[in-house]
Amino acid sequence: MRRSKESWLRTIIFFVVISLTLQVHGKISYESRNGFKDGVPDSAAEAEALLRKLISRPSSSPFNIPSPSSPLLGVYPLDPLTALEIRTAALVIRSANRTSSLQFKCIGLHEPEKALLLPYYLAGTVPPLGRIDRKADVLVVEATSQAVAWVVVNLRTMKIESWTNARPDQHAASVTLDDQDSARTVAFADPRVVQRIKALGFNDLSSVQGDVWDAGYVADNPTYSAVRKLVQIFLYVLLGKGDDYYAHPLDFVVYVDLGAKVVRGIESLPIQQGFSTSNRTGNSIPTAGASIFQPPNSIRNDVRPIAISRPEGTSFQVQDRLVSWQNFQFRVGYNPREGLVINHVTYTDNGKLRPLFYRLSLSEAYIYFGDPRPPYQRKSSYDAGNYEMGKSSMSLSSEFCRGQAYYFDSVTHNDKAETTVVKNSTCIFEEDAGLLWAHYDSASDRMAVTRSQRLSISSFMAIGSCDYFLSWRFYQDATIELSVRLTGLPNTNLMAVDVKAPPYGNLMAPQVYEQNFQYFIGARIDADIDGVQNTVSVEDIVSVPAARNPYGNGIQTQSKVFQTAGDAPTDNAPGRSWRISNPNEVNPVTGRQPSWKLIPQGPNMPSLLAPNSPLKDKRLRWADHNMWVLPFNDEEIFIDGLYLDCGVAKWTNESLSAKIENTDVVLWHVFGFTSTPDPEDWPVVSSLPDTVGFKLRPSNFFTQNPALTVPPASQTTAYDDQKGWSAVPINPTPGWRN
User: Fold this and answer.
1) pLDDT (0 to 100) of residue 50
2) Residue 302: pLDDT above 70?
3) Sequence-separated (6 or more) residues with CB below 8 Å from residue 613
4) 576-581 β-sheet, strand order
5) What is the DSSP letter of 455?
6) Which range has the worst mean pLDDT, 10-19, 72-81, 523-532, 716-725?
7) Which residues pair with 560 in a beta bridge?
8) Pick from 610, 371, 619, 623: which is nearest to 503 by CA?
9) Residue of 98, 188, 302, 620 with fewest CB within 10 Å of its CB?
């Protein structure tokens, strides 16, 4: 990958400063590395002593050498936290807090206030090194009481800037890997759980697998609702290496209190068609195997490989985390909860840098299962809020990222603030996207054909049985697309022998039952179309009213401008889109305001949750509408709120009269799909049917099609034949061809 001279210079400066730091602070660097080796010291006194050594400065030093976490080492203010910064943030908290049982649930970048970075974004420049402090957001939990606090740590001063304790009714939404391990340990140590497993014929507990979920809706159970951190565990049996344990579900669910480390409840699952759980006739565990890892003799032999190559290299450039491609420029970000974030999107239009989107992210993905029989009302998951999509990112390879790809690593951590690097967790690659435009001109008997290339920035998240392939895609006609592909394994429960599935799902195999389910996915879109002052409107394509439509063929658009936050909650409809405009600019051709339209993609099934469903009340109201718009607020990042307390719905209700016309606005778009499983989804679900998302397309933004300057297909598409690389003919004579 080509790098600019400035990039190389910054790299050289980085290593020079590191070298000086190690020479002048050799002893401190050595001790700090040892302290971080196994996370952060449990003792506050030890942590405080280590912190003092880390920030001390020898008086004889001729340089004011920065600490290893300082932005003076060349880290851009929006770049993800490094491993050292994560550990430093935890060390600062441990040294200030006398409780040794703190758990570090989530440590991510505290993004700088938009007002600080906005001038540089609009001008296409970079703030001077060290101008903006690097800070960390830290979600900490006291292990026994499960009391929660949100802490902001300044990584330059190594001091706590704020410590905000959560209310008693708020809890840490995250269910970390440490939480899951702890919950399984508690469950499998409970004699009641062991007895039920052995009663089903399984004496070897090592073969029992536990899927750990947040407990979901518990307001109907006083014992559960009194627990600050409760999880539920669905149980399965693994019958050998490579076996799919979802083929062998057990018939009960366990509820574990993570604070007290005890089992709070064991509930039988219904295995007949009705609601009753008392009839256990036919209660045996299916043993028929299932695996996605097929033996070689069962693999098709009539599939020929497709070669993907770029003989002249890539068309995109990467400098640190800044990406340039086809007039687009943006920065690739990451945080533990959302995962992939796209920052500071601009477009260069005939030499003019035009801002588009300050920040783009997938904020939440919620799934609930549509079986009304208790206790399935609790079977639901916030895959970002509970499992942290960033922490769930997996290493990518050429099977995901075709051709010549560029990769970014990410750093994650456990509850002790021990860090690990996930190699290649984000990839950037170009791919053919089909026909861009074509036309046969009969007057000149010429054919013009242009094929589309797109740039994909992708990550893959594995959360339980579900796998996400998330891609932000940029196109040569200036379209931006969010594509969410879901694949993975059906999440199953048990049915009794010879019992058909109830109408709330289907049998994947004998006794192996999957419920119908629905996804709500929320995206956050911080738009700055040609500047910060933007207006949002909803636009429908409709027939012209009869009074002005004498022949009935009239078509027009009908728009409503959102003036206040209370105007904005709206839903999908046929032919509907939302327009983000800059009312202070005018397109010289059309006389209209330059804008971008948000166009939903995919099935976008409306919510099937009943309007009065108690599942919505305290957590899910953000899914009541497909669109919300609010004035920008630095603290409103997650669509469902920091503690999964309805987020954007609550903020909207608290500010119904807030002005959102001709100001800095954030759009929150909710989309999703509904699935009714079939045997064709067993034992693995294909991704193609469940691709959802939206497109952001320019409208009155340019004076002509920006794709007009894309070279013809003869120059951008090649094929490999026996004679080597050659251009595909663009002006063929009439007739069929092989």
Assistant:
1) 66
2) yes
3) none
4) 406-413, 419-441, 446-463, 466-475, 480-488, 691-699, 595-601, 576-581, 535-543, 555-561
5) E
6) 10-19
7) 538
8) 371
9) 302
**Residue 5 binned pLDDT confidence (cut-offs 50, 70, 90):** very low
| Domain residue spans of the chain | 5-150, 177-294, 317-533+562-709
CA-to-CA distance for 207 and 209, rounded, in angstroms? Answer: 6
C-alpha span between 337 and 175 (Å, rounded): 11
**Is residue 34 a contact partner of residue 26, using CB atoms and an 8 Å limit?**
no
Q: For the segment 177-189, what is each residue's pLDDT rounded down to a tens digit?
A: 999 999 999 999 9
Question: Is residue 26 within 8 Å of 18, Cβ to Cβ?
Answer: no
Does CATH place domain 317-533+562-709 in 2.60.40.740?
no
Burial letters 151-185, b for 16+ CB under 10 A, else e: bbbbbbebebeeeeebeeebbbbbbbebbbebbbe
Half-sphere exposure of 726 (CA within 13 A, CB side): 7
| pTM (two decimals) | 0.90
Residue whose tokens read 């006083």: 222
- Could you give the CA distance from residue 536 to residue 560 in angstroms, rounded to a whole number? 9
Asked whether the predicted pLDDT for residue 12 surpasses 50, the reply is: no
The two tokens of residue 157 are 């001063």
For the record, the structure tokens of 428 come out as: 């950037």
Class level of CATH domain 177-294: alpha beta
Tokens of 464: 């339980």
The tokens for 683 are: 């034992």
Helix-strand-coil split of the chain, %, nearest 5: 20, 35, 45
- Look at residue 249 and tell me whether its pLDDT is greater than 50: yes
57-66, 273-282, 301-310 — most confident range: 273-282
